[in-house]
Amino acid sequence: MNMGGLSSAAVRVLGCLIEKERTTPDYYPMTVNALRAACNQKTSREPVMELSEDVVLLALDTLRKDGLVTTTRVSGGRSVKYRHKLEEVLELSPEQLSALAILLLRGAQTVGEIRTRAERYVTFEDLESTKAALSDLERMELVVELDRSPGERENRWKHLIGIESPHHQSVPSPKRSLSVRDLAGGDAYKLMTGLIVPRPIGWIGTVSKEGIYNLAPYSFFNGVASRPPTVVVAPGMHDGQYKDTLRNLVDTGEFTVNVVSADLAEHMNVTSTTEKGDEFERAGVTAVAGHDVAAPMVSECKANFECRVTRTVEIGDDQPTAVVVFGEIVRFHIQESIITDRFHVDTMALAPVGRLAGPNYSNVTSFYQMIRPG
Predict the structure, then answer these.
(1) Is residue 297 part of a domain?
(2) Nearest to 105 by CA among 118, 93, 95
(3) What does the pLDDT read at residue 168?
(4) Are residues 72 and 136 located together in one domain of the fold?
(5) What CATH number is attached to the domain comprising 311?
(6) Do 131 and 193 reside in the same domain of the chain?
(7) Helices then strands (H, E): number in the chain?
(8) CB of 300 within 8 A of CB of 285?
(9) One domain, residues 148 and 23
C-alpha cells in the first residue's frame, strides 16, 4: 500500500496511536486531546512538534478516509476515541508494527536502537530478529535501509510513510504556460501573491510635510542588501496618483519599518484601509518618533528600522502603477528579549507574520535547519 501522500502530522498521529496501544493499553483508543498531547511530547520524538487540535483533527480525517484509522466509543464514555487499523490493513505482526512505530516517532535509527527502544512495545530476542522484522517491512516498501554516512558505524533505517516510494512516484501534473500579455486585469497580481509566499510585511510609518503621521502595511517589501543595509517597499499608485505613504516617502525621504509579530496582526490589519485619520489611534498602537528620522515608529513592535530613501524607481511604461522605494536602514530598534549579544535574532520569540494570497496570513510556528554545503 502506498502511503506517500500522508502529511508529517498524519505520520506523527499514526506513530502515537501504535505507541499508546502497545505501551498504555488502558488509555487506548485515544481522544483527540490525549492524542495531541502524545504528538507534542518533548521526549522520544524526532522532530519535536507543536500540533494544534485542528491539525490533529485534519490528520485524523485524512487517515480515516484512507482506512488507516477508525473511531469508537467506549462504554459509558461520551468522547469519540480513535484507534489505528494498520495491523488489519497491512497484516503486520506485533514486531513489525513496533519497529515501524519507532521509526515513525524517532526518525532514522540503527537496528540496535530500534531493538532497545521497542522494549516497551515488544521483546525482540536479538538483533537478527529485529533485522528480520525490518526486512519484512522493507519488502512491503514501508521502510528502507540507508547507506552508512561518513563517520557512522552502522546503517540506519527510516520509514517511507509520507514519502513517495521510488516505485510509486506520482506523475507530475502538466504545467500551464501563461504569457503575461494574455492575462486579464489582476490575474498576474493573483498569481504573484499566491506564488511568492510567504512575504514579509513592511508596516511602514511615515510623516507628511505638514507633520501628519501615517501608518500602512505593504507586502511588496523585502530586504535586498546588507552593505549598506537596504530594504525596498513598492507602494502602488491609483490612476497615476501618489497615495499618502508614497507621497510622504518622496516628500520627506524618511520612513520606518515596523516588524509585525503575531500579537499585532489584527492591529496591522486595521491600518490596511484607505480611510483617512490617525492610523495609530485607529489601530490602538503608540506612535513614537524615530531617533535619526522624524517618521513615527510603532512602540509595541518588537523590532523597528529607521530608514532614509536612497532612490526611487517608477514601474510601468505609459503610466506608472507603482514606485519601488529603496531605503537605507540607519538605525535598528530591537527588543532585548529577542536578540543575543552576537546579534542573532530568536525567530520564535519575534513571531513574525507572513503575507499569503487574499485574506490569508501565516505565523512562524516551526522551522528546520539545512546546513549549506561546502
Answers:
(1) yes
(2) 118
(3) 42
(4) yes
(5) 2.30.110.10
(6) no
(7) 12, 16
(8) yes
(9) yes
Query: DSSP H helical segments within the chain, as ranges?
Result: 8-23, 32-39, 53-65, 86-90, 94-106, 111-117, 127-139, 187-195, 244-252, 265-270, 279-283, 347-350
Count of CA atoms in the C-beta half-sphere (13 A) of 264 = 26
Alpha carbon 304 to its chain centroid, in Å, reads 23
Identify whether residues 194 and 127 lie together within a single domain.
Answer: no
In sequence order, the 6+-apart residues with CB closer than 8 A to the CB of 254 are 206, 207, 290, 293, 294, 295, 306, 307, 308, 309
- 104 and 59 share one domain: yes
Q: Is 268 exposed, middle or buried (0-12, 13-18, 19+ CB in 10 A)?
A: buried
Report the C-alpha gap between 182 and 153 in whole angstroms.
58
**φ, ψ (nearest 5 deg) of residue 252:** -105, -25
**Residue at 199 is within a domain:** yes
Residue 296 lies in a domain: yes
Give the count of beta carbons closer than 10 Å to the beta carbon of residue 91.
Answer: 9
Residue 155 and residue 223 share a domain: no
Q: What is the pLDDT of residue 4?
A: 62
In DSSP notation, 247-301 reads: HHHHHH-EEEEEE-BGGGHHHHHHTTS---S-HHHHHT--EEE-SSSSSEEETTS
Q: How many domains does the chain have?
A: 2
Q: How far apart are CA 310 and CA 288, in angstroms?
A: 23
305: closest CA among 224, 247, 230, 240?
230
C-alpha cell belonging to residue 153: 558505524
Q: Is residue 172 part of a domain?
A: no
Q: How distant, in Å, are the alpha carbons of 13, 20, 34, 80 from that of 31?
A: 12, 12, 5, 6
- CA-wise closest residue to 325 among 196, 237, 200, 265: 237
Whether 351 and 261 have beta carbons less than 8 Å apart is answered as yes
Same domain, 246 and 359: yes
Give the structural domain span for 271: 186-363
- Domain at 68, CATH number: 1.10.10.10
**DSSP reduced 3-state for 23:** helix
| Measured distance CA(72)–CA(60) in Å, rounded | 13
Q: Which phi and psi (to 5°) does residue 81 adopt?
A: -125, 160
Please identify every stretch of the chain with a pLDDT value under 70, giving residue numbers as ranges: 1-4, 74-78, 163-173, 374
Half-sphere exposure of 270 (CA within 13 A, CB side): 14
